[in-house]
Amino acid sequence: MPRLRSQNVTAAQWSPNGGSIGQADLTQPGANVFGANVFSGVVQRQRLPKAVYQELQETLAEGKALEPALADAVASAMKEWALEKGATHFTHWFQPLTGMTAEKHDSFYAPTGDGSAIADFSGKELIQGEPDASSFPTGGIRATFEARGYTAWDPTSPAFILENPNGALLCIPTAFASWTGEALDNKIPLLRSMDALSRSAVRALSLLGDTEASKVFTTVGPEQEYFLIDEQYYFERPDLVTTGRTLFGAQPPKGHELDDHYFGSIPERVLACMLDAERELAKLGVPIKTRHNEVAPAQYEVAPIFENSNVGSDHQQLVMQILQNVARRYGLVCLLHEKPFAGVNGSGKHNNWSMGTDTGMNLLEPGDTPHENLQFLFFCAAVIQAVDNHQQLLRASVANAGQDHRLGANEAPPAIISIFLGAELEKIFDAIESGSGDGATPQSYLRLGASVLPALPMHGGDRNRTSPFAFTGNKFEFRALGSSMSLALPNTVLNTIVAQSIDELADRLDQATGGGAPLEDAIVGVVKEAYSAHKRIIFDGDNYSEDWHAEAESRGLANLRQTPDALPWLIEPATVEVFSKYDVLSERELESRYEVYLEQYTSTINIEGETAASIARTMLLPAAIKWLAQLEGTGGGAGVTRLKEELSGLVDAFVEAIFALEAANREHPHAEDVLEGARYVQSAVIDAMNGVREVADKLEKVVPDDLWPLPKYSEVLFIK
Ligand code: ADP
Ligand code: MG
């Protein structure tokens, strides 16, 4: 198939002035547009009557329900602001279990009956919406005959305006629940988990002698990896269009073995796209800090500055959406799949996580005084204990079909969860545990009350890029998330398990001090005990090595390789216990997620199986047969005969493999048990797909280029 070998995109199309969006600020690249489309605290203060603004702040601080009159006043100000910004519609913006965001637009304008219309938006419409819940995944929580679900305004995440070339939309972040009050979304559990952690951490802080902090926020700073490819190639590949990844494709002669892409200079068109996306995100109040090339060709990364987990998670959804939208303005497509190209590094998402007080203190920041250091060690030990106790659940929180191609494939952390502390910090914990210092760890560490920890460098020794969960100076970096994922579940899990662990450590501290131990000794004792019991989770070596996999097993750490191995941990007794205790997810809510995620896994692989079979039979096989026919028509000598034999052998094998895949797709059991369905596709369909791909990738190398119907990796990845 003749294909474009060079871009038909002109600079005019991708310069800020040439784009189709006509907003004035876009034509001024340097203009400060940060937060321009956010109904932020500042805007609220300017626009709300003073008394209303104060009442709203108090209500938010206390987490109380909004009075109807207050809601009306806020709605009116929000409407005026949105109309001035050109919005014609509003939507409750929510996050169903699809992992994406959902919106249902309502017009602000209502007909008056005399042929005109007035803009209308009441407090009731602000606070609550009633989308039909029956089309969203609920995992059996809500049968279709009781389809009612409702969305409820989350005033802690600011409303914002999404621009479109032909209008603008006011988006109101909301939670999504069933009529019976069960969470049908990712936001509700995240908010509940933040509350749980706050309660536990505030209690612990008061035992540690800090009575000033009255709230603790968890924070998240994500780093998003993604691919940008030319849209021409995207649309020529039904596998990319339908499944988000290539199901076929021989390895190109050049991959990333030259290491020439990472941190390389960013191609002009790509940079223009990034700048545009960043400007759009800035308007939405998303603070992008860094951008660079990633390891694979055509792979990039963008990282916003951290925010509280709820807002950070909402903003992360916007980052994914804006990247995808803006890419199209430049003739590019943004791929967020975890493994778009076999044999080429996939994309993940690093989740930097910490806890901060309303008094401005980062609880994972080693401090300058003995007291601050003890506090740091206490919270750090709590994280170590939590991650060890719930390693399988953490693994389950990042499981999806795309991740199965990536985790453990020597480009991303293994499926084994472990913690990297860094040499200095590990030495301190070891000294506390053993009660004895050596030359390098002076005795003074052990009497922490009397000394100050050596200043820990912000990046605790060398960086270990292979660790799934690394301490990086003042936060932990959970590195096993997939690029397409919502941040909500992994952070919900982290917050909840750490809340539990903080409480357990606080209980012990309380007992020890109640028994008369001096506070400092008691803290050291609690830290020592937790570290001793959980240090098997600490590993500072190469997580990609085979040796580690063997050692992890001997340490009793779990290696849940694939999604169907991991997801059952969502409903294990230990999970149900901690989630119920902290009112984050009930057993029924957990079961619903388990079902939804397993069904998503199964459906994803079913779709891949069908797509692979169709491409193989209707695109690739005809190309191979056409070439075979052409060869048959050639007289030729011994050489041509060899080619014919080789090709005809491959065609036979290909037909065989296609039939096997079609059978695997057909024979899917109609299992009641979702796990059984998932196990079936995991073995039968994936194996059959691999069988088809193996032959197809060989054919790609022998069928003439002009007959081969799919753009090749060398084109898709290298033409920028
Ligand atoms: P590095 O030099 O390792 O990139 P940074 O301090 O720039 O370190 O942070 C890297 C990532 O960690 C950024 O995405 C940032 O937003 C995030 N981050 C920094 N501090 C925190 C924190 N307290 N909580 C959560 N994320 C954080
Ligand atoms: Mg990182």
Q: End-to-end distance, in Å? A: 20 Å
Please summarize the sheet with the most strands: 9 strands, mixed
As a percent range, the share of helical residues equals 40-55%
Q: State which percent range the strand residues make up.
A: 5-15%
Which class do the helix and strand fractions yield?
alpha+beta
The coarse overall form would be globular
Mean pLDDT: 88
Q: Segments where pLDDT lies below 50 for 5+ residues? A: 1-27, 448-452, 457-461
What does the radius of gyration come to?
Answer: 28 Å
- Number of DSSP-assigned strands: 17
Structure notes:
With 720 residues, this protein is α+β, with helices and mostly antiparallel strands. Helices cover 45% and strands 13% of the residues. The protein is built from 22 helices and 17 strands. The chain has helices at 11-14, 41-47, 50-62, 68-84, 123-127, 187-207, 231-235, 238-243, 268-283, 309-329, 370-389, 391-396, 423-434, 488-514, 519-534, 546-554, 563-566, 573-581, 587-633, 638-666, 674-700, 713-718, and strands at 87-93, 105-107, 109-111, 117-119, 128-129, 149-153, 160-164, 167-178, 216-230, 288-293, 299-304, 307-308, 332-335, 348-357, 419-420, 469-471, 476-482. The strands form 3 sheets. Strands 9, 10, 11, 12, 13, 14, 15, 16 and 17 form a 9-stranded mixed beta sheet that branches. Strands 1, 2, 5, 6, 7 and 8 form a 6-stranded mixed beta sheet that branches. Helix 11 crosses helix 14 (488-514), helix 11 runs parallel beside helix 15 and helix 19 runs parallel beside helix 21 (674-700). The longest helix is centred in the last third of the chain and has 47 residues, at 587-633. It is globular. The two termini are 20 Å apart. The relative contact order is 0.11. Residues 1-27, 448-452 and 457-461 have low confidence and may be disordered. Bound molecules: adenosine-5'-diphosphate (ADP) and magnesium ion. Residues 223, 350, 477 line the site of magnesium ion (MG).
